[in-house]
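In this supplementary section we document a worked example of the pipeline. Step one takes a protein sequence of length 302 as its only input; no multiple sequence alignment statistics are reported here. Step two produces a three-dimensional model, which step three serialises into structure tokens for compact storage. The input and output of this example are shown verbatim.
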Amino acid sequence: MLIKRGGEIPEREVTPEQLYWSRRQFLGAAGVAALATALPGTLSACSVREPPPDKLNSWEDITTYNNYYEFGTDKSDPHENAGSLRTNPWTVAVEGMVKKPAVYHLEDVVRGAAVAQHIYRMRCVEGWSMVIPWMGFPLRDFIARVQPTSQARYIEFTTLFDPKQMPGQRTNVLDWPYTEGLRLDEAMHPLTLLVTGIYGRVLPNQNGAPLRLVVPWKYGFKGIKSIVKMRFTDTQPATAWNKAAPQEYGFYANVNPTVDHPRWSQATERRLGEWRRRPTLMFNGYTEVAPLYAGMDLRKFY
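The serialised model returned by step three reads:
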């Protein structure tokens, strides 16, 4: 069976967003069948929620306006250049302070996971935002399977490094490969996702196929794409943007409208597709994560 991935789907074949919210049409969509075939068993717990108060961004918005420097620095570059990425087969190495280190095939990472729809607001440090219907499952479910030791405090994530497939890696705009990190308690929060799709379809290359991280209360650069390694450690890992510009991009990257970026204000944001600006919400509105940072100075630990 030929599986069409997101970057290969003609616009005429994309399910309109208004039809997506019909359960019957959603479950019957070709994209859901493709996802179920590519990742066996992952849709057993799939749920369809009502649209949030904020309007969802369109498939076109989500798949053509991206930050993914491995494919170029312009927002349109990933959509135009990411077709070169081969996502099958795919493996994820789990290393460090875990009881079950191994190289896991993608199917093994996802097997048995309760993949479901999660509608999250996503806020970029540059001042724009989207509302995206991710398909994924809590990272903590996979963490439980690999069994971190009592010494583990952080997870370092690493993106694929392959300049032949990723033309942006032929430049020195960042120190490749791209790395990111979370504190273990952040990674274990139920809002933190490993994502395999959007709008009920397999995740397009430009959005981080085949496996990416989504942490909705943090700025978008924490959402590392095309993950090939997770390393559990007792030491805070170095991260790509913190290495590139430590005065601008801290390790935590929590959305905090009271802390300006050195070159612009973070007090307001513009939702893609709208012209008006709206106030930026603390933790991007996900205030249930506040206990993770009790007693921390969130102006210092930015």
